[in-house]
Every structure is written in structure tokens, then in C-alpha cells.
Sequence to fold (574 residues):
Amino acid sequence: MGTVEPQVSTAQDAPQAQSIDGFQLVIDALKLNGLDTIYGLPGIPITDLTRRAQAEGMRVLAFRHEQSAGYAASIAGFLTKTPGICLTVSAPGFLNGLNALAHATVNCFPMILISGSSEREIVDLQQGDYEEMDQLAIARPVAKAAFRVLHAEDIGVGIARAIRAAVSGRPGGVYLDLPAKLFAQTIDAAAGRQSLIKVVDPAPKQIPATDAVKRALDLLKGAKKPLIILGKGAAYAQADADVRTLVEKTGIPYLPMSMAKGLLPDTHEQCASAARSFVLPAADVVMLIGARLNWLLSHGKGKTWGGQKFIQIDISPQEADSNVRVDAPLVGDVGSCVSALLAGINAGWPKPPAEWLAAVAEKKKGNVAKMTETLAKNPTPMNFHSALNVVRDIVRDNPDAMFVNEGANALDFTRSIVDMYQPRKRIDVGTWGIMGVGMGYCVAAAVTTKQQVIAIEGDSAFGFSGMEVETICRYDLPVCIVVMNNNGVYKGTDVDPTGRDPAPTVFVKGARYDKLMEAFGGVGVNATTPAELRKGMQEAIRSRKPTLINAVIDETAGTESGRITSLNPSAKKK
Ligand SMILES: Cc1ncc(C[n+]2csc(CCOP(=O)(O)OP(=O)(O)O)c2C)c(N)n1
Ligand SMILES: [Mg+2]
Fold:
């Protein structure tokens, strides 16, 4: 006592030492909730937010276009079951990110688009601010929820609400508007820290009702030709072991939707993918697990289907009956629903009738034999099949690799030829069949899983996000991109009947996409044969270097719109 050192602080800096600003509160609120990665693009008013987040140990991945950052955030949400964070500047940056926000909502991926915005007073009086736009109003119709924070003391609540909205119930895209003024606002540090919320149980389990479980089990038990359809909701749930047990214990043939491929290995004997057009109309009871009866399943009606009964597992109570009658809706999260069903399936559960299983097996055998024959051909020039035969082998030998896929023919052929072996490896164009997800998905897949990434891209599809190869090189990510180069959209053979311009569907002939990768220090390969493609992919996986293989595909090989030609209104018969 009596030897206390004199305090050196001055009256001026004392309040600063005890205050905290909006930047810091945003960073602290995200970190407090385990959100440690930002996918974004800097500029006014969020440049310092990106700098300070990085300085505080967050991973800040800067893209060349916000759309790619947004897609990266959306798929990070799918892969991790926590909201992917995308950060954009006001008006134009926000709009560039908005596409991905809508994509996240439509695909049920948890994502938060955080955007800086201009001064409210000026925006609301339309006085012409820098990048003036009423972003909240514009985001609302495509977001699951949209919030704005005006006061630093509300940042904690704003981020907590955004997290809950993104991941609870049916996940989706959430918009969080942070006006420029908020970032520099300071409040008392202790009060600020106190205002932050660590969200408890952000995605609560939703347990299905016992009578609904019984109804579903009764219907399933009485089926003569049962079928299970696994959607990407089942993949999202991360209830992989229970889903597999349910399929195997019941012995029911199953169809995986595109992003559910690998939930059970595609080579599983109960997998009915190779007999899809047979099982859909023939089945008498179909159990949908995290799959919606949207256009991808022909809305559950028409000639694809056979007027059967449906059991539908979905977290949204509004999903059932959206297209056709659902006889046994089971509302809850996929994990809880599947485990409730399993509890009612004992050793005495009857396997499906042998005739049904034999009929499915027979159809599969025929189609697999046809495909094997096609894949064995080695035409010159290389076509989709001979190239994908190589990709199929590479994926079989590297089942841990993440697999990104977009295009039309480059998508449809790949989906049916390349088997997946593990859950949540295949990520693709999703519910909208959207082009442009490719490179953003590659970055997020590499960053969140640390695995090798293989991307099979149509040459048109690749173009939507091609500049992000620089991002891939900058972060030195183990991404091997294969551009299926058939000189255009669907094929490269169209001509302008007037002879003036190139046709709208064709690109520069013989383009060398591999040179784009070389420009940023990655490895470029031009592959004109399956052997060259194989060597290029093997080397990419061995080296883990950013690699782009320009796979030269016969420009006559594709079909209009790939597998969904029927959806394309055609002016006249070709
Ligand atoms: C954002 C967006 N714009 C346009 C389309 C329409 N579209 C569907 S597939 C496709 C490209 C198909 O060409 P490519 O990727 O080269 O695949 P290919 O069939 O030639 O293998 C386009 C432009 C879309 N699905 N999404
Ligand atoms: Mg093409």
C-alpha cells in the first residue's frame, strides 16, 4: 500500500480505451457464434471490416465478383450446416450478391448476405447518395428473412436473428443490412460485449408426431412396389448412418437426387438410378426424404409417374400437397424423422416383394450394359462419354474428393456416368439449374473440407465465373477444373442463317481455357484424348496444384438443353 504507480492515461484517451465500435462488434458477434470465414469483396463501406476481420484471425476470402463469393457462402452453408457469410459493398456489390442469396433460399442453404449500405436519411429521401439503394426492400422478396441494424448496441441481436433465421426450420438465405454509419459508431465496451448473443441451439431438432410416424410406417409396410427418393435435404441433414440403415433395413430400392448422390454409394445394389424411368411410374408407394416434388421430379404427375401414394419427410409443414396429394406427411428434421421410422422397423419388417426387386434389377442390368458399351468406345474427336469414362475412374479412385458440376450436357452426362461414393461430395447447379456456381463452389469446397476438388464444367458454364481461377491460384487451392469444351452452349455447330454473326450458342472455336489458368501461375493442360485427360487429372490430384484441363470435345456431341429438351419452347421443328 502507498506505493501505487501513478496512472498514465489522460482524460482524452480514457473513454476510447473503454469503447468499442461497430466494426469490432460485428467481428466479435460472428466469432462468438463460430462463424470464422467470410466470402466477400471489399470496398466502401466494408473495406476495414475485411481488414480487421482478417487481423482478428478470421478467414477472409476475397473474390473477383460478388456472385462467386455469394455462391461460395451458400454452398459452405450446405456443407457445414452453419450459415455461410457473404460480405458485399452497397448497391452494385449487393445486387451482384443477391443472385446467390436467392439461390440459397430456393435451395434451402443457410447463408447470410451482409451488405454495407449508404446513409438511410439520404437513401430514404432519394437525395442521390453514393451507391444509393433501398437494399432491405430489394432483398426481402428473395430472402427467407431480412434485417437492418441501425445502432451498434443492436449488432448482437441482428446477427443472432440472422443466424436463427438462416439455419432453423427450412434453411435459407438471410439478408443483413449494415449502413455505413453503423461501423464507426462507438459504445461502451462492457455494454457492447454484454449485448452480443451466443445463439443457443440455432437449429432445434423438430421431432415428428407419433401418429404421423405410424401412418407413414403403415403405408410403407403395405407397399408392393415401394421406392425411396433421397433429396439434397437428406444430404444436408448429416444423418448419413441412419439414412443408410433405413434404406438397408427396409430393402427398398432408392433413387438419389443429384446432390444426394453418394449418401449411399451409387454402386449400392439397392440404387435404382439406372432404372429411373422404370421405377418412377411403376412404384406404388414412394417415400420422399428431403426431396420436393418440383420440376426435377416432374411435379409428381404426368407420364413420368403412376398416380402412386406418397410419404413425404420434410421440415416444412407446408411442403406436403404442393403438387399432388401426400398421403403420409412426416414433418420434422430429416434426422429425427428417419430415426423415428427406424424405431418402428424391427427385425420382422417384410422385405419388398421379390418380383419388384427382380424387375428393378433386370432393368438396371440392361441399362448398365448399354452404358458400359457406350463408355468403352474411344471416338476421335473425344466425346462426353469417352471423357467422362476417365472422370468416373478418377472419382472412384479418389472418393474423398469434392465434386463440382455445371453445364447442360456437361452436367447431365456427368450426373449419370460419374458415380459418387460418399455423402455431400457432389455439389451442382441445384434447384434452379443455375450456371455460374462453379468457381465459387470450388473455393468454398476446398476451404471448408480441405479436400481435393474436381470440377466438371461446360465451356459456357465455366465462363460465368471463370475469372475466379485467379482466386483459386491466389489461395493456392487444390482444384482441378475440367472444361468440357464443345465450342458452345449445348454444341458448337449452330450458324447464323443470315451469315452475319456467330450464332448465339457458339463461342470462339478451339478456345484454350487452359491458358487462363497459366496466366495466374496455375497448371494448364490441353487434352484431346482420354489418355491426356487421365494424365492431367492424375497429376493435378498428385500435386494438389490449381489446374485447368481444356478437354476438347466433339462440337457435334451435345443435345439442345441436355436432358431437359422438353422444357425448351421451340419455335419450329428442327
Ligand atoms: C444463370 C443462367 N444463365 C443461363 C442459363 C441457361 N443455360 C442452361 S445450360 C447453359 C450452358 C450450357 O452450355 P455448356 O455449359 O457449355 O454445356 P454443354 O451442354 O455445352 O456441355 C445455359 C447458358 C442458366 N441455366 N443459368
Ligand atoms: Mg458447351
